[in-house]
Specification:
The chain has two domains: 97 residues, no CATH class; 42 residues. It has five helices and no strands. Helix 1 packs antiparallel against helix 2. The longest helix has 38 residues.
């Protein structure tokens, strides 16, 4: 599993755990006030739904509206431009691997079998024949 995916999973579990904790606290608060179990369950689910919707809306707002604008604003400053260049260089170094020899490439590329070559030639021959037949029909109708 990718490290970034693990970080996202940990973040979402932490947020979901906090939302559930607030839901449980809301349920306990409703029970302490003297309401029945059903009202406490409604309070729990209402708290969980409202906090989840609030978290999702904040995430969407930050990711789609604010972050691109903040990125454009910060890229005006030379210090942030240098950070961007360092990140791009580090990313390019991570991608570069050992040079691949041409012999290894030719060995791994599959060569068509004799049957496949004969089949492709037969299909092409049939297509040429049908094209010629179609052209003769069109010439006859003129």
């Amino acid at each position: 599993m990718n490290k970034r995916q693990t970080e996202y999973i940990a973040l979402y579990l932490f947020v979901f755990g906090a939302i559930l904790l607030f839901g449980v606290l809301a349920r306990k608060f409703v029970l302490v006030k003297g309401y029945d179990e059903f009202s406490a369950a409604v309070g729990f689910f209402a708290t969980v739904v409202v906090l989840s919707a609030l978290y999702i809306s904040l995430q969407m707002t930050l990711n789609e509206l604010l972050l691109p604008r903040m990125d454009k604003f910060l890229m005006r400053f030379p210090a942030f431009q240098k950070l961007e260049e360092v990140a791009v260089v580090a990313e390019n170094h991570a991608i570069v691997a050992e040079p691949i020899e041409e012999d290894a490439i030719t060995e791994t590329t599959p060569q068509p079998s004799q049957y496949e070559v004969l089949r492709a030639n037969a299909i092409a021959k049939q297509e040429r024949a049908s094209q010629a037949k179609l052209e003769s029909v069109l010439d006859y109708t003129k």
